[in-house]
Amino acid sequence: MALEGRFETDDGVVYVGGDARQRYHDSRGYGYPLEGNEIALAPVEAAHLLYRGDLEAIVDAASGERLRFREFVAREPGEGFGVRFLVYADLRSRGFYLSPAAEPWVPDPPGGEVDFAVFPRGKGPGDGKIAYALRIVGERTDIPAAELREGVLAVVDEESEITYFEIGRRNPSGTSGSDAALPDGCEADLLADRVVVWEPPLDLYERTFYGQPLEGREYDEPTLQCSLLEAAYLAERGAIDLEPEMVRERGREVEGERFDRRLTVYTELRERGVVPKTGYKFGADFRTYADVESVENLGHSELLVRVHPADYVFEPRDLALDVRLAHGVRKTMVFALVGDGTDRSDAIEWWSLERLTP
Amino acid sequence: MALEGRFETDDGVVYVGGDARQRYHDSRGYGYPLEGNEIALAPVEAAHLLYRGDLEAIVDAASGERLRFREFVAREPGEGFGVRFLVYADLRSRGFYLSPAAEPWVPDPPGGEVDFAVFPRGKGPGDGKIAYALRIVGERTDIPAAELREGVLAVVDEESEITYFEIGRRNPSGTSGSDAALPDGCEADLLADRVVVWEPPLDLYERTFYGQPLEGREYDEPTLQCSLLEAAYLAERGAIDLEPEMVRERGREVEGERFDRRLTVYTELRERGVVPKTGYKFGADFRTYADVESVENLGHSELLVRVHPADYVFEPRDLALDVRLAHGVRKTMVFALVGDGTDRSDAIEWWSLERLTP
């Protein structure tokens, strides 16, 4: 016989007596145990039991009203109830137990903007292990960059489909050539928003992968076109005979403050032995190559990097687009968040986002 | 022996005498013929001949200075010279002839923001046929929606790689079920930013593809979750028992004015026999199915639709991202531009963008 619950609107929790502890908590991971056999359920847990027909009804302790699934859901008990319920039900149907990321559901809940603690498959709230912290948002909820946490983000779209993203730290590093190999003072001209380097040593392109040869010229003395980022980096190191500040100034003219942020990330990647090339065709700032020995034997680029200021606010739809595209071309989407730290390597936070099927 | 040209800065044109007409114009499609054997060249044409070594030098008519390729290019003769030259050279290397889209290069030049008339392969300026109108922008140049034209858009990225997009009109149409099949006044609840329809006829989902069944319920009486767009459309037609204006009002609360634009496009697509479902996973507004007979035998969705106001300004990088993603999932990217025409079908302009390899 199905039990009934009692909804206390004051504490926003549903109490169930009878043999609830054994039936719902111990064997199936719902709620937290109270004295005797009573348990307390979060609204999503209670709704799920109602939905499954495991709870018969929930009685509103204040009004005495008897609520079935439809009536209980229509009250939207708690902020974001709808999307939380959908994700809760989805993960349970995939064989996971999960609890609200709060005491007393879990003893040591993960901090930050987290909705649920998801337990490893086959484990429950009493087993002392958490597989990951889960945050849930609707597709219209903006996500400030400062709220990113290692864990999983579930986005519920307007038609109630769910996408899961695994969020992690990603520190790019590589073995590509160092500045030691750069030439000295090659002749170069600054044109509109690019730079032409006139007949530099072949290795500038072929080994260290700067620029792009102008088509149709003899290959043993290429004329290289460089982006303003590449040119600013090369000018700073004396490899081309342009004033570094002049190149940066042009960059700011055509791109605004975005240019300095991108140059910070470009420089940091180069110093980490990673070659950044434009990610334009993928809608990103850079695609990156960790281990360039020569352009002739260039491997697959591994990362797509998008540069944002540290106070950027993500829209889930843009995240979906970026991550989906990166996945489709077998690259990992990385966000470089640039703050105003004085030391360059401190100024950048690197985050990766990847699609996840729980 | 290579000829020399004469650059008149006043009219921005390079004149070449000798046997130039036969050598450069008649046999290879450069410039336009003047009296005798003289021809006039646009700066990109002259630069290309210099670059190839076909012209020896260009003499500045005012100063008498003798310019080689580097010096001529460094002057950036004309707006957007750099990107125009790159695309001109690329298309010539692919075997196409092209001329500035202006008289007297071509007798009846295409209107609007067009840079070049590209001739069919094997044809030239004298043959009276244009394969397409070509517009060229750098990746940092914004493109107002009002400037879209049928033709080809070439975008030159910061590292001087070129992407070609074919722009065309695309009027979606299909054979999916009509409103006649809709039920009458199904019970529904409005929750936060979605609507639950309680046990509607199975066909509402299965035949006309509204909503998404709540997982884990019996399938012969599904509980459907609908987006606010679907719900606004269904409420307007009396298929669910919610006030249409209440649903639209909620839509505006959570999405702002974007909601009405999207509803206009949603409604127009439905009335054209096309089923729009959310395009969230592709970062778009809709993916569309032209011929839905049943959800069980659902084909591949054909279009990704992004909705913008008619005065929207595109950034080439976003275009690249959208078109690349659509291509990767074998769909066509379509932009629905919504103006404020009073008649709905007049209010929407439909444009498709697809990658092109010339």
TrEMBL record, chains A, B:
Residues 259-342 form the tRNA intron endonuclease catalytic domain. Its EC number is 4.6.1.16. The keyword Acetylation does not apply. Keywords: Endonuclease, Hydrolase, Lyase, Nuclease, tRNA processing. SUPFAM superfamilies: tRNA-intron endonuclease catalytic domain-like, tRNA-intron endonuclease N-terminal domain-like. One of its GO terms (cellular component) is cytoplasm. It comes from the Archaea. Residues 8-72, 187-243 form the tRNA intron endonuclease N-terminal domain. It catalyses: pretRNA = a 3'-half-tRNA molecule with a 5'-OH end + a 5'-half-tRNA molecule with a 2',3'-cyclic phosphate end + an intron with a 2',3'-cyclic phosphate and a 5'-hydroxyl terminus. GO terms for biological process: tRNA splicing, via endonucleolytic cleavage and ligation. One of its GO terms (molecular function) is tRNA-intron lyase activity. The active site is at residues 289, 300, 331. Endonuclease that removes tRNA introns. Cleaves pre-tRNA at the 5'- and 3'-splice sites to release the intron. The products are an intron and two tRNA half-molecules bearing 2',3' cyclic phosphate and 5'-OH termini. Recognizes a pseudosymmetric substrate in which 2 bulged loops of 3 bases are separated by a stem of 4 bp. Endonuclease that removes tRNA introns. Cleaves pre-tRNA at the 5' and 3' splice sites to release the intron. The products are an intron and two tRNA half-molecules bearing 2',3' cyclic phosphate and 5'-OH termini. Recognizes a pseudosymmetric substrate in which 2 bulged loops of 3 bases are separated by a stem of 4 bp. Belongs to the tRNA-intron endonuclease family. Archaeal long subfamily. Homodimer. This is tRNA-splicing endonuclease. It comes from Natrinema salaciae.
